[in-house]
Amino acid sequence: MKALLEILEGLHPEVDFDSCDTLIDDKIIDSFDIVTLIADISDEYDITIPVEEITPENFNSAKAIYAMIERIIEEE
Fold it and tell me: Is the domain defined by 2-10+23-75 classed in CATH 3.30.40.10?
């Protein structure tokens, strides 16, 4: 989770990613941020994020993103 938080804070250092659970709903991160996140997560965790996992629910909070990462790692 620490690596993910560092990636997120690199995109938006002004956001408290520990408590924010409306990243998509409040338009804190946009589609360009998601593309960047997917690339950074893929590099950091050595995973490929399937297209079906790229949903607003999976990117609305750091916890949701990390849960998606864990799910993908388990499935590989």
Answer: no
